[in-house]
Design a protein that fits this description.
This protein has helices spanning 15-23, 36-45, 70-75, 86-89, 95-107, 120-124, 128-140, 167-181, 197-201, 218-228; strands at residues 3-7, 31-33, 50-53, 80-83, 111-116, 150-153, 185-189, 206-211. By secondary structure, it is an alpha/beta fold. It binds 2-phosphoglycolic acid (PGA). The site of 2-phosphoglycolic acid (PGA) has 13 residues, from β8.
Length: 231
């Protein structure tokens, strides 16, 4: 089955609501990435979905106020970690930090979901393929671990805008990303919903979707997982 991964971002605003949302996911194959603060409660209560985190720190432990370590996540039963989401890069994460986080996640035996994607300016100037290739190579630079990873292609202009990318374009980008190491699975993210998910999943190069807004609507999210189970 192709993957469907929900990224809740900074939502919802209470643990009660987070539990309600997670319990409503009735599919075993779902992966949800709630805010850090809810992971503990969800790991005890939620049996159906697999847990992911939205970020992690690159250092293993120590004096890093406000940060969260891979071992802390593992202790809660977290399996996946989003690394280098464009919303974190916009807050100042550069390629070197993303690469370091990726290495830390791999070394810990967790599954990284590396996010890459160009801005509208890069797309308009026609340099998007080159830019994304560099982002992937910068993240994988010096990674000796050959384990296949998930790489989410998320063009910034498609995130939360209701303007998803063209599936054919995404297929081409996915092919390019896959060719870098030959083993990684490429996901698409950006304004996916139950209406358009099929158009991405039917592309052989696309291994799944990373879902933001639509993952906060449990009925819609469940329907997306049902659709994905046909691929
Ligand atoms: P979106 O977000 O589905 O709301 O566009 C996707 C993401 O940022 O991962």
């Amino acid at each position: 089955m192709k993957r469907v991964i929900g990224n809740w971002k900074m939502n919802p605003q209470s643990e009660e609501e987070a539990l309600r949302l997670a319990r409503a996911v009735d599919k075993k194959d779902a992966i949800i990435c709630p805010p850090f603060v809810y992971l503990s409660a969800l790991s005890k209560e939620v049996k159906n979905a697999t847990l992911g985190a939205q970020d992690v720190y690159n250092e293993k432990e120590g004096a890093f106020t406000g940060e969260v370590s891979v071992d802390e996540l593992k202790d809660l039963g977290v399996r996946y970690v989003i690394v280098g989401h464009s919303e974190r890069r916009a807050l100042g994460e550069d390629d070197a930090l993303v690469a370091s986080k990726l290495r830390t996640v791999l070394d810990a035996g967790l599954e990284p979901i590396l996010c890459v994607g160009e801005s509208a300016e890069k797309r308009d100037s026609g340099t998007h393929q080159e830019f994304v290739k560099q982002q992937v190579e910068a993240a994988l630079f010096q990674i000796e671990n050959k384990r296949a990873i998930l790489i989410a292609y998320e063009p910034i202009w498609a995130i939360g805008t209701n303007q998803p990318a063209n599936p054919k374009d995404v297929g081409e980008m996915a092919q390019m990303i896959k060719a870098i190491r030959g083993s990684d699975t490429v996901l698409y993210g950006g304004s996916t919903n139950k209406e358009n998910i099929g158009s991405f999943l039917e592309m052989p190069e696309i291994g799944g979707v990373l879902v933001g807004g639509s993952s906060l609507d449990s009925k819609e999210f469940n329907e997306m997982i049902t659709i994905a189970s046909n691929y």
